[in-house]
Amino acid sequence: MSPSAEIMDFEFYNPVRIAFGRDQVKKIDKFVPKDAKVLITYGGGSAKRSGTFDRVVEALGDREWGEFGGIPANPVFEYLMDAVEKIKTEGFTFLIAVGGGSVIDGTKFIAAASLFEGNPIDIFASGVGKGLPVEKAMPFGTVLTIPATSSEMNPITVVSFEELQAKVSIKNEYLFPTFSILEPELTYTLPKRQLANGLSDSFVHVMENYLTYPVGAKLQDRWSEGILHTFIEIGQEVLADEEIDYNTRANFMWTVTNGFNGFTASGVPGDWSSHALGYEITALNGTDHARTLSVILPATMKVRKKEKWDKLLQYAERVWGADAGDEEARIDFGIHKTEEFFRSLEMPTRFSEIGIEATDIDYMVEQLAVHKRDRLSERADQTLDISRKIYEMAL
Questions:
Q1: Minimal CA–CA distance to 257: which of 152, 172, 124, 337?
Q2: What is the pLDDT of residues 301-335, one digit of tens each?
Q3: Domain encompassing residue 205
Q4: Residue 234's domain is classified under what CATH number?
Q5: Model-level pTM?
Q6: Boundaries of each Fe-containing alcohol dehydrogenase-like C-terminal domain copy (predicted)?
Q7: Same domain for 176 and 215
Q8: How many domains does the chain fold into?
Q9: Residue 274's closest CA among 308, 297, 301, 295?
Q10: What DSSP element (H or E) covers 64?
Q11: Which of 75, 76, 151, 281 could join 106 via S-S bond, C-beta 3.0 to 4.6 A?
Q12: 267 exposed, middle or buried (CB, 10 Å; 0-12, 13-18, 19+)?
């Protein structure tokens, strides 16, 4: 049974201005100071090919601007430091990230590192740096092109370290964007794989705060269930090859943003073990973040069934309509439907689909220890041995 039946104390803060809908990029002129010198960050070049970059430049008007491109998926510390040096050398005062979660996460780190007094690696903990606090950051805005992580409306960044084979996150209130532009039409050119990744990534974000233990947070539970229902309802429509529907993409974009912007996480415990285990997979072989989660979440449900019994049952009944058999049969039905949902998006649910073998498990468990991820989950009771069992279940 749950250790608590009362909603937990919380402090909620989210200062991000959202401009949602058609032709919102032009509002950059209103949101960016007139005297700002702006560095536009982006990824592999789709921002330019799609014309979005030029629209941002047009919206900046007479402001002085520069660019820093090539931010990869799973933004790399060593590469991001080149942008930090550029900012210090050329005197930029404002950042605009044009891209998805990786570009936005990378830009958040750049914003913090550019004003950090000391070695920016020490912003990070988890065995990478000293875990020193971020006490200021450059102001920045975002133009979201790939809905997936909610980074456009949260204070979290995830950065990878090539030499250390590590992937580490930071949460700090100075990492909130000042504004985020959400134009659903910017998703029209995305390949199916990126759309599926976005649906899956956000689905698991919601589950990390939902699939814990009951604390009487009725509204948060219903918010989470509503988001999950929406993903299930629109998933196939988002991936459809036929004519793209604006309202479907609008619901997709806004639902993803709400998946991890703090609303569903307030007053409830959080797990985040699926993410921790998934980070080690990405660090090992570069698998897309979302594709690690679609494998790890079902395995976690199976291994941690007893510990998550109450919420697994609620999830199965409320989200998937399980109403037959005893409690365990309903829970198993919910787990099965979760795997079935991921497979319907052409997402992997087994290690064999993402290039992980049984011989890799020892190394990943060792890395969990190195990165101080040896007491995971909402109760801090997921030991390395349990994490090993989850990896083994995913084979």
A1: 152
A2: 999 999 999 999 999 999 999 999 999 999 999 99
A3: 192-394
A4: 1.20.1090.10
A5: 0.96
A6: 200-372
A7: no
A8: 2
A9: 297
A10: strand 64-68
A11: 75
A12: middle
